[in-house]
Design goal:
Largest sheet: 5 strands, mixed
Strand order of the largest sheet: 3-2-1-4-5
Number of domains: 3
Oligomer: single chain
Strand content: 5-15%
């Protein structure tokens, strides 16, 4: 190996110091300016400025610390039209992205589980929706980790079943007046009863419409009762409440509701785990909105690695609008 002279060593150190100072300077400018503006002001090419920022982000955010991670959320976001997605793993305690992968298949998360295991982190709970690929990945790569299915995703599935019931009843209804009522009822059905405006005719209109159609009324009140599942005093009470709710829902024989019941029953352990670890994907949903803003302001990213690095840095507020 070639031995460097003291002069060469000093020169290397000076170059390294200059490079670091330049990275910090450019990155500070990018807090309030676009890459295009910085390149014009410094008379550098756009690609040079972008590469400088990329090196800075990679050094500071390229390998998120995982040792202290205990509660995470997993979700996907759309990259572009055509069902192309990326997967995000979010640290719920520290409010930061700790992994971003291409796609939403179970294999996408393998590098994350490998890093998490080598870090020695004591993961306790994972919040997610009921996407089978994510569930499969968690089960295959973790032990004694509780999966918590997100409340709002479950309510969304119930709302979809309720709306499907409404559409089915609309198609089957022969009386013109009742068809008109059912057709314009969607937004009132999906709105929580407690959020209905008491100063308008919303509540009265809903009650009159439900009185005209018993199956629709059954489905609506089941939707309202489902919210109470997450308001029980403990897991045992929630388990009993869920059992009774499923029995009542299945007794209606309304096919979209029965189908939802089967889905919910098959995931009941993950639903009830909320009483052990009350976590959700809510914060990650908000973080995904920041990612959308980031993507929209840049009109998309051709460099996927650079895009991921920007996501890792999003928990720093000053990077949100770059």
């Amino acid at each position: 190996m070639r031995q460097y002279t003291s002069g060469e060593t000093a020169l290397c150190r000076a170059k390294k110091s200059y490079t670091r100072r330049l990275e910090h300077y450019v990155n500070d400018l990018l807090h309030s300016m676009t890459i295009h503006d910085v390149s014009n002001n410094l008379r550098m090419s756009w690609n040079t400025v972008k590469d400088i920022q990329k090196r800075y982000l990679k050094r500071h955010y390229g390998s998120p610390r995982l040792k202290d991670v205990r509660y995470i959320a997993i979700d996907e976001f759309a990259v572009q039209k055509g069902h192309k997605y990326m997967t995000v793993v979010y640290d719920l305690e520290h409010g930061r992205a700790i992994f971003v992968g291409n796609g939403r298949e179970s294999e996408v998360l393998k590098p994350f589980w490998k890093r998490l295991k080598s870090s020695g982190a004591k993961l306790k709970a994972v919040a997610m929706d009921m996407w089978p690929a994510y569930l499969k990945s968690v089960v295959e790569h973790t032990e004694d980790v509780k999966v918590v299915f997100d409340k709002f995703h479950i309510i969304k599935k119930m709302n979809e079943a309720l709306d499907e019931t409404r559409r089915s009843l609309y198609r089957e209804e022969v009386e013109v007046n009742k068809r008109v009522v059912i057709k314009g009822l969607r937004w009132l059905l999906l709105k929580n009863q407690g959020h209905l405006d008491k100063n308008t005719t919303q509540k009265q209109r809903l009650e009159e419409a439900l009185a005209l159609n018993e199956p629709l009324a059954q489905a609506y009140y089941l939707k309202e009762d489902l919210h109470l599942l997450w308001q029980q005093p403990d897991q045992a009470a929630a388990k009993e409440y869920l059992k009774e709710w499923l029995e009542k829902a299945r007794s209606t024989t309304i096919q979209p509701i029965v189908k939802f019941c089967n889905l919910l029953a098959g995931h009941r352990s993950g639903v009830l785990n909320y009483y052990l670890y009350p976590v959700s994907t809510g914060r990650l949903e908000g973080f995904n909105n920041k990612i959308k803003v980031l993507k929209r302001k840049a009109y998309g990213y051709r460099d996927t690695e650079f895009f991921k690095l920007k996501i890792y840095a999003l928990h720093k507020a000053r990077y949100e609008l770059l």
